[in-house]
Amino acid sequence: MNEQQCALLEAQINKLESISTAPAILQPLLKMLRLPADDIRIESVVEMVSRDSAIAAQCLRMANSPLFGHRQVETVRAAVMALGIAKVRSLLFGLCMHQTIPKGKWVLDPNAFWRHSLGCALVTQTMARGIGYREPEKAYLAGLIHDIGFLVNSVLYPAKFRESFQHAVAEKCPLYVAEELILGFTHEDSGRLLCKRWGLPEELLAAAGCHHRLDVLPTAGPLVCLVHLSDLLCRVRNLGYGYDEVLAVALAHDPAWKHLLIAYPALAEVDLVRFTLDIEGSMDEIATLVDSVFASDRRAATPAS
Ligand SMILES: [Fe+2]
Ligand SMILES: [Fe+2]
């Protein structure tokens, strides 16, 4: 993407909020995402979640999901206590993103998109814990939002993005390759600019903006490398964007893997066969959670706070 294209895209993204339907809690939530989780009071999170009945209901469904190991949580407060502030704000951000896309504007299948994003969040976090990365919750958030640029492209450039998707399906190629060809930029470019517009931390900008960029991965920091590897693992294990890609993955030769191995020698101990089997074991739960949380536009009754 050249400078002129970048300026044009940035101007379009700045207009995004006026043409989308961002929930009222988005702005306070963005403020919360800029703070360390330890500086946030549980009461402010509970109050924020309780303001939107649909989001409160979705938050409860997540807290009760086997994926997060909790059951029989009946109030928003209990959900926040059970999941922890960092996890709740990540999940809320995902829910806000989902609501931001007007009905009928989705180019990708929303279920496939959220299964991929949630799968990537879980894998990034698990891998982060496995290697001793200092902020596994940040890794979860980075995995969840890494493809946020697809949502931007769906809203701002629906015809060309649809054409990109159709091209990727026909050629069985990665979607970013088709975007580059047809749009002249990728969801990484638009995702990074949206994260920048929202004042998100630099590491998240990089995770959204460089996760396919093998040339810059080694200098982009460990979080981006983790997201890149998780994205690949999810795509080869049928948690991609809802179409078949021809993907040859050799993790041991991947620049991100080599780079991480230097900084985190514990990565060498990660049993990848076991790890990918674990992902497959969670796929049904991921699908169930996504179907119950993101696939529904129904407004549930307001849960108790
Ligand atoms: Fe991507
Ligand atoms: Fe991805």
Structure description:
The protein is mostly helical and 305 residues long. The chain folds into 2 domains: 3-18 and 106-287, Orthogonal Bundle (Hypothetical protein af1432), CATH 1.10.3210; 21-100, no CATH class. It has helices at 3-14, 16-19, 26-33, 42-50, 53-63, 76-83, 85-100, 110-131, 136-145, 148-156, 158-171, 175-182, 187-197, 202-210, 222-236, 255-263, 272-293. The chain is globular. The termini are far apart. It binds fe (ii) ion (2 copies). The site of one fe (ii) ion has 7 residues, from loops.
Provide a short characterization of the protein structure:
By secondary structure, the protein is mainly α. 65% of the residues lie in helices and 0% in strands.
List keywords for this structure.
mainly alpha, binds fe (ii) ion, 305 residues, 17 helices, disordered C terminus
